[in-house]
Amino acid sequence: MTTDVSTTQVVLDLVGIFVFSISGALVAVRKGYDVFGVLVLAGMTGLGGGFIRDVLIDATPPAALEDWRYLMAPLAAGVLAFVFHPAIGRMERSINVLDAFGLGLFCVTGALKALDYGLGLVPAALMGMVTGIGGGMLRDILASRVPAVFRGELYAIPALAGAGVVVALAHTDLSYWTVALLGGGLCTGWRLLAIWRHWRAPVPTGPASV
Amino acid sequence: MTTDVSTTQVVLDLVGIFVFSISGALVAVRKGYDVFGVLVLAGMTGLGGGFIRDVLIDATPPAALEDWRYLMAPLAAGVLAFVFHPAIGRMERSINVLDAFGLGLFCVTGALKALDYGLGLVPAALMGMVTGIGGGMLRDILASRVPAVFRGELYAIPALAGAGVVVALAHTDLSYWTVALLGGGLCTGWRLLAIWRHWRAPVPTGPASV
Amino acid sequence: MTTDVSTTQVVLDLVGIFVFSISGALVAVRKGYDVFGVLVLAGMTGLGGGFIRDVLIDATPPAALEDWRYLMAPLAAGVLAFVFHPAIGRMERSINVLDAFGLGLFCVTGALKALDYGLGLVPAALMGMVTGIGGGMLRDILASRVPAVFRGELYAIPALAGAGVVVALAHTDLSYWTVALLGGGLCTGWRLLAIWRHWRAPVPTGPASV
């Protein structure tokens, strides 16, 4: 794989952070949090997955604390959601579609960054998944609710699959963009199909012994 | 700014940690936690903000794990609250006033430490705020309740404002203590006014779409 | 103390991670989480204490992300619990006994690793305790419930005592295995007695002022 990252990458990153932040801000609005809670939940949802990854792979301070542009995306998302939440709430279906693209993007960039920092293939794929789902998990912990990703939503498994494709192909001759499109495409496509067809992750069967 | 830190700084730090720890220990007592839960909630509330900051800015191990005095403050607060909680609980108003001083102190020291570790102005101000509010957020997560800082309490915004003043003035000719007093004074003064005048942070208006 | 670590250590580590992971997976099954939630709760419970320790003492990336074997133990535990949870749930008493051995093991290895990374005696003992109890705390936070370790269960105090013995003896002439057996034995023995005799940690007395 040849690395050929450009401003396209930064723009895609910012779009992904913005979409994730909108989902966090909407949860905060619905919980009746104040303006600060809305901004924090926006920020933690948009940036939290990358923060967890960067702390674990020793890439601190996280990129979002080195480049002010990454802080502007959740700020804008939080302010928009605070003011226009009735309209944005009605667009939830569109937001879920954009969110699937954000997930595909984050599992790719997260896995590649982990490889750059010397992690093996399996841990790097896990870090790709964590980058994609970590922000939503922090959002749900801060909102005192069970993480959505545990409740049957088919979300983490596409992220892990996409990240797995990325790490498997990262050391081939394929170009950066080919690898990213294959891994991110698998993740986003699978996630969109799951939304469209109401696919659910399996839950345990049989009596739950207490 | 000239740096002229002394034992005064350490004493102030310990007072701030102690006051924050008392607030964490009281929450644990009211939840019916055992003695260990009281000590852990005291410690996480008193030291947690600094831990989060130090992990994010790569200043690990955190200072509180390098200097045993920082561990004694939450230990003392936890034991006191465990034994004397009915009396301490009645002093809650006084504790809130002391807490406002702790907040002012932590937003100053947090912002300055982040600058020392090379962060830019905006991230350093954020880290000052995180130092001030992070312990209380961890306390509320560990107590399975929505963080108080999201529920309209005017708490985080004064901390961010105080930290903002500190980073804005840090590279001027003003002395360390002048910068600290201006930033910390803004934070503490604003917070005390908010308690006294019952100021609240704005919440979203309009129907909350579900 | 002379260090003489061998594959025995790795095997013991894997057993401890596996047992902790089973307890996390069972909580997830009882909450009705999907297969992904079961695996994540298994992984966070088995590996989370070590993750927190490694992030705090600056030993990142954590060992479990450097060696794929550490990831296999929670995977196996999660799959087993997902499929056989009615049978495993009935063995809870046996699992609690194994868990006491895991606790004794983790408080020893956690304290020794912290000493290796230059921490002082008191912080190293704390890190030993954190290694033992951190996974269970993360499990309970992710399951939206009050950490079990705060609710009177005599769990953390044996872990701290065992880790304390380890750091106190680590610089003597005793062999690695002697130190480990004394510290881990104190922790595990105390914990088993607490289960057997229904010992509880003390809770605050008197009226809880609100």
From TrEMBL, chains A, B, C:
TM ranges: 6-29, 36-56, 68-88, 95-115, 121-142, 154-170, 176-194
Alphabetical UniProt keywords: Cell membrane, Membrane, Transmembrane, Transmembrane helix
Any Pfam family matching the protein: Gly_transporter
Location in or out of the cell: Cell membrane
Record-level GO cellular component terms: plasma membrane
InterPro entries xref list: Gly_transporter
Chaperone is among the record's keywords: no
Topology term for the membrane: Multi-pass membrane protein
Domain Glycine transporter, residue spans: 11-85, 97-170
Any coiled-coil regions, as ranges: none
Family: Belongs to the UPF0126 family.
Protein name: Trimeric intracellular cation channel family protein
Species annotation: Nocardioides agri
Top-level taxonomy: Bacteria, Bacillati, Actinomycetota, Actinomycetes, Propionibacteriales
